[in-house]
Please model this.
Amino acid sequence: MQNKDTVDDFRPYSAKQVTLPSVAMKSFRLFSIFAALVLLTSLGACATAPGTQADYDEASDPLESANRVIFDFNHFVDRILLRPAAWVYREVMPDFAQDVVHNILQNSNEPIVFMNAVLQGRVKDAGKTFNRFLVNSIAGLGGVADLASEGGVLPVDADFGQTLHVWGLPEGPYLVLPILGPSNPRDVVGFAVDTIASPWSYVVEATGGVETRNHYIIADLTATMLDKRSRSIDALDALEKSSVDFYAQLRSVSRQYRHKQIGMTVQNSDIGKITFDRKEEEGQSAAPATEGAQPLRK
Model:
């Protein structure tokens, strides 16, 4: 196969055809993950734990100037493109069709959830996820219908960012990513690993070729964006209207939400001698917070 030395090589992997041998590409991916983990560890070592949530948010955002620039860019793109598209999608698309899109996306993510539940030692959650995928893929026609939830087997929340937390890696400083929004180095690595580990792009490429795979990736990203943004329109609008500093408010809310997810992950893990009282909350496998407990700072 002849390599192409063009400007296309600077585009993201998901947006162009593969021109490197498969072995070299896999080696490059593994090296990228390793380098990101090294960076994550070094950045996490600088984190501090001040007394209040506000102090913590500020101290854990050493890149605030750069983050605010990216935040302003994201906010501009959201106002002129993402929010209008999501609003039209929500208002024009029938509710049942929106549910079908959401169910298919959720079902396609179940293999990643299962993988991370296993890696986190959440044996019961892994079994639940396997059962959900089996039922919805067969009886639910590939996830078109969420029959598992109707039968009381609700979705589990698990990703590789949570897995890295269970393994003891710190989150590092607060980051704002272009388009993707609030994050941190640990979750950046987690997002990359989950994306690479997802089997569907490989299946599509094996059956339909690289061009078909690229079309699938674009369709998947578009559907995911519309689904998530359409479900958060009212909440984000209300948050922005009530905020003196929307950047600081979104930073605080997003970190607290993520720390709540991380706390649930630890409590649901069967690693060590962790015990918990389980309950189902808002369609996610979760454990109630202990009364008076302090929020997680890592």
Summary: The CA atoms of residues 154 and 283 lie 6 Å apart.
